[in-house]
Amino acid sequence: MITRCRPLLGTFVEITVPIGAGDAIEAAFDAIRHVHHHMSFHEPSSDLGLLRAAMPGDMVAVDRETIAVLRMAIAFHQATGGLFEVAVGRELVRSGFLPRKDIGRLSRFPGDTADIEIVDDRHVRCKRRLLIDLGGIAKGHAVDRAVETLIAAGIDAGLVNAGGDLRMFGYRNWQIYLREAGGAIDHMVVLQNCAIASSANLHNRRRHSGRTVGPHYGRAREPVLTDQRITVVADSCLVADAMTKVAMVDPELADNVLAAHRGHVLRQPAMATAA
Amino acid sequence: MSNREWGHLLAVPILVGVASVASATDYLSVAEAQRVLLPQVQTFVPFPITLSSEQLGQIKRIAGVAQSTSQPKIWRGVSGGSTAGWVLVDEVIGKHELITYAAAISPDGHVLGIEILSYRESHGGEIRNPRWRERFRGKTVNDKLKLNQDIPNISGATLSCRNVTDGVKRLLAIHAVALARVG
């Protein structure tokens, strides 16, 4: 297999394909760049930039893929009683995890995911203004798009890894190493034809208004701090990526949602923990 | 897709404890990166320069980050006798990682592509140790890497590529002060 690596989506994206299939890698990176372009929080010209500039009720034209990701986000928001939330931009800007430039007063953005209304495959409007950040789901979607691109090109096995959220395809067993929250790689799992995603925040915290916060928020938009790595397996990387955030707060709820996606939260057996 | 294909998901995969793996990966040699970044270019000619202290100051002003070496690794991509693009190979050092990467820059100063050549990670203190870095530095440039071996696939801990994106700004500044007028 050959692997190439580029800086995209704020992290390092690796694409692995059989030797001789290297030409397909370019189109797969293009698929990721497309997601990066439309779903970046940082670019004012991205779909998220357009959505945060829109007034309540404004019809906003966005990319089809942005609509697809928002549809999934809304479904997860409903399925988790609001625990999965993409309007966390407000919290992430407030605590310094996302840049504040051009955003102004955060009180202007009171909305949550339930305020997003999908009009059709190209249009969306919001009932209240909100700051959408797709950091918890778009990376998984980008991995899925890259995998779909490789499969469409006739590649029979491969793997796409966007900063630790990854998906593999084809009849091949892959050894996937897991990085624990502290940074060390301590476990390995063998998988085939599925996606796996992990989240942790032990080393990604800030002090804000006299308390420690991380980039993950739970019920009532309270920061969630955990010393553990949360790992989820599913049939698509979007689902695995999104469900790590739910599993961080409520693993059973995540398992319920994942059952429809042939996935589950990866739990560490006691024996393995002791190893 | 049938349930049978996804049988492995129904049976919970077994986690196996492993001794800590140091992630060290070689993706592309310099020569391969040149071909990938500028596929139409016929030949790549090394283009050694030494930046003056005045140029180093200009680079820092433009890029906002300091250029540490006065002799950056540069290749000129030549097609039909004229410059078709530049390939600059650079490295950035993070808290726990050493990354060698290549950027292709057009004659008029636009980024045409970025490829990571190698990635070294350490949870010890080696990253800041020049002798440890030197072990890898020579390798990438000499093209004698053991490439195309299976790399460890790692889930977890999103790594920021900010060092590299800042590095590319510095390479664009090198282009502006030292290469733009070469033609």
Q: What's the β-strand tally of chain B?
A: 8
Structural class by secondary-structure content of chain B: alpha+beta
Q: How many DSSP E strands of chain A?
A: 14
- So how many helices of chain A? 8
- The H/E string of chain B reads HEEHEHEEEEHEH
Radius of gyration of chain A: 18 Å
Residue ranges of chain B: pLDDT <50 for 5 or more in a row? 1-7, 138-148
Cα distance, first to last residue of chain A?
30 Å
Please specify the SSE layout and strand pairing.
The complex is a heterodimer of chains A (275) and B (183).
Chain A: E1 2-8, E2 11-17, H1 23-39, H2 47-53, E3 60-61, H3 64-79, H4 89-94, E4 116-120, E5 123-126, H5 138-152, E6 158-162, E7 165-169, E8 174-179, E9 185-191, E10 195-199, E11 206-208, E12 211-213, E13 230-234, H6 237-249, H7 251-258, E14 264-265, H8 270-274
Antiparallel strand pairs in A: 1-2, 2-6, 3-5, 4-5, 6-7, 7-10, 8-9, 10-13, 11-12, 13-14
Chain B: H1 7-10, E1 16-17, E2 24-26, H2 30-37, E3 43-46, H3 53-63, E4 73-79, E5 82-93, E6 97-105, E7 111-121, H4 130-142, E8 153-155, H5 162-179
Antiparallel strand pairs in B: 2-7, 3-4, 4-5, 5-6, 6-7
Helix pairs in contact in B: 3-5
